Amino acid sequence: MNDSSLQKEAFRAGEFWCLDDWFNQLVVNRQFVQIAEFANAMNWAPSAVEIALKKNRLFCIEKEHGQFFPLFYASPDYDLTQLQTLTENLGKIPGESKLYFFTGRKISLNDDSPLQALARGHYDEVLQALRIYTGI
């Protein structure tokens, strides 16, 4: 199940999930993992993950059980350099807001999420959507 499908499921008529429930489902579905598994998926050392995080080249969501990283960074569907540039441009907003940017459908992207648009090669359009999202 992709991120957009999970969002649709979370908000279908008659059922409401809070953000924590949605995020927990992402963890259960292995779309977000802790640093050791993320580093392994990226073929990086954990220290490289920490450096990229400090430089805002990737994001995590912090929960009581640790930091969780989105595995879409390791997906062959996306260009890692583009994802890192977009993440850097999102700045210091919380990880949850970055997750919403990447997975939320955008009118400016013909109702696709930025991840869907990136998978189709529409980087420039996603960058424009980011500028709208952040107000820069």
Q: Describe it for me?
A:
By secondary structure, the chain is mostly helical. The protein has eight helices and three strands; from the N terminus they run ααβααββαααα. The protein has helices at about 5-10, 20-30, 35-40, 45-55, 80-90, 95-105, 115-120, 125-135; strands at about 30-35, 60-65, 65-70. Helix 1 (about 5-10) packs across helix 2 (about 20-30) and helix 5 (about 80-90) runs parallel beside helix 8. The chain is globular, with a radius of gyration of 14 Å.
Which sequence of SSEs, written as H and E, runs from N to C? Answer: HHEHHEEHHHH
Q: What is the number of strand segments?
A: 3
Molecular shape: globular
Q: Mind describing the biggest β-sheet?
A: 3 strands, antiparallel
Biggest sheet, strands in spatial order? 1-3-2
Give the helix proportion (percent range): 40-55%
Span between termini: 32 Å
Spatial extent as radius of gyration: 14 Å
Number of helices: 8
- β content, as a range? 5-15%
SS content category: mainly alpha
Q: Kindly state the mean pLDDT as a whole number?
A: 86
**Uncertain stretches of 5 or more adjacent residues:** 6-16
Tags for this model:
mainly alpha, 3 strands, 8% strand, 8 helices, globular
